[in-house]
Design goal:
- By secondary structure, the chain is an alpha+beta fold.
- The protein has 2 domains: 261 residues, FAD/NAD(P)-binding domain, CATH 3.50.50.60; 121 residues, D-Amino Acid Oxidase, Chain A, domain 2 (2-Layer Sandwich).
- Helices cover 38% and strands 26% of the residues.
- It is built from 13 helices and 20 strands.
- Strands 3, 4, 11, 12, 13, 14, 15 and 16 form an 8-stranded mixed beta sheet that branches. Strands 5-2-1-9-19-18 form a 6-stranded mixed beta sheet, covered by helices on one side.
Length: 398
């Protein structure tokens, strides 16, 4: 137990939403967070759509005004299109926002620092445990440094710092491990009246889709997900591959994108779907994408980061108030709650790809209220409803 009157330091590796939200929650519990971040913000990042529960978690941190100041488009739900323009369905998602990640992430990190988090610009290069403390070696522009702490948060996202350091064992490949995502920002997207500022998903074959997320009145984030082999066979540049595929993907997409004009560089991510079975021990916790990334289709990435930040801060407070021999049950509870929530989204997505129109019927009619709750992100410590139970039963039978 910590008996010193000074705030106990928690080292947070990564200053994105997971790290910044963790820091703000830890400050509320009397800890002194130390954020290690290698990049200079603002920096580009993909994943611009928030859920209602994500916004609620940010509001619980007192960030209402900061979110309003971003002047982000308001999101009410998700519209999903198949190949034909008349075949679409809508799933309400509550009251949320679409946010450009560069200013959003920058706001989060700035706010954490202003509230009292320490910030070190540097790269974590090694971590090991010695005599009850985690030892983290970092490289700054000026020199190497060694930090020590009982508690550490890995908020490095898909870089998975602690997993790559060999602390968690095998990485499990997800359903989208052989897919590749290409994305950029575009002007002159011809949005239809039904689109509003909602997320648009255009799908065709299994695990192949395009997303459209309006960032403001002029600029829209557009991404394409297809098998890696399709790109390799095309012999095209990433830019040409993305733009050619967007225009030929489907009729409802072509209606909106035929005059699009790219306004930034095209980027790509491959092999981005994964999970780690164990991601918490000895006062070291993974938060958000550092332990699991399902896929970006229904936009839960930022939510997992900021809500898990609440749970990790509570877990660390519990750990700080008891003997280390009692930590394992706290670790297990954290992993159970966060895993079960992510399993809801994983199972929903698996069912969607196997039965898209059965999914549409349940989301629109049979279990509309339950699906609204799921798409809003209210999935933590909840009993499975009839719709989710039905999906899981069908998946188990196949």
């Amino acid at each position: 137990m910590h008996s010193n009157n000074t705030p106990e330091e928690v080292i947070i590796i990564g200053g994105g939403p997971a790290g910044s939200a963790s820091a703000m929650n830890l400050l509320r519990h009397g800890f002194q967070p130390v954020i290690i971040e290698a990049e200079h913000f603002p920096r580009f990042h993909i994943g611009e759509s928030l859920t209602t529960e994500c916004v609620d978690a940010l509001n619980r941190l007192g960030l209402d005004g900061k979110l309003q100041a971003l002047a982000a488009p308001q999101k009410k739900g998700v519209r999903i299109f198949s190949h034909h323009p008349e075949n679409s369905f809508y799933v309400g998602a509550g009251d949320a926002w679409q946010v450009e990640r560069a200013p959003f992430d920058n706001m989060m990190l700035d706010e954490a620092i202003q509230r009292g988090a320490k910030h070190i610009t540097g790269q974590a290069v090694n971590i090991e445990r010695n005599k009850g403390l985690w030892h983290i070696s970092i490289q700054t522009n000026k020199a190497k440094a060694l930090l020590k702490s009982r508690f550490v948060i890995d908020a490095t996202g898909q870089q998975r710092f602690t997993q790559k350091q060999g602390l968690w064992g095998q990485l499990n490949a997800g359903d989208y491990a052989h897919q590749m995502a290409f994305f950029g920002q575009f002007e002159n997207i011809k949005h239809q009246d039904i689109d509003m500022h909602d997320t648009l998903i255009f799908h065709r074959k299994k695990h192949e889709w395009v997303w459209m997320i309006p960032l403001n009145e002029k600029v829209t984030s557009v991404g394409l997900v297809v098998p890696v082999e399709d790109f390799k066979k095309s012999k095209l540049s990433m830019t040409d591959f993305l733009e050619d595929n967007i225009r030929s993907f489907s009729q409802p997409l072509e209606q909106r994108a035929h005059n699009m004009k790219r306004v930034n560089d095209v980027r790509a991510i491959s092999n981005y779907s994964f999970s780690i079975d164990e991601y918490c021990r000895d006062g070291l916790f993974c938060v958000g994408d550092s332990h699991r990334f399902i896929d970006p289709i229904f936009s839960f990435g930022v939510q997992f980061s900021v809500v898990e930040a609440e749970y990790v801060s509570k877990a660390m407070l519990e750990c700080s108030q008891c003997d280390e021999s009692e930590w394992s049950s706290i670790h297990e509870t954290y992993m159970q709650i966060t895993t079960q929530a992510q399993d809801v989204i994983q199972d929903m997505l698996s069912y969607f790809w196997k039965h898209p129109w059965g999914f549409a019927n349940m989301a629109h009619q049979k279990y509309a209220n339950e699906f609204l709750e799921i798409f809003a992100g209210r999935i933590y410590e909840k009993e499975a409803g009839k719709g989710l139970t039905h999906m899981r039963r069908v998946l188990d039978e196949q």
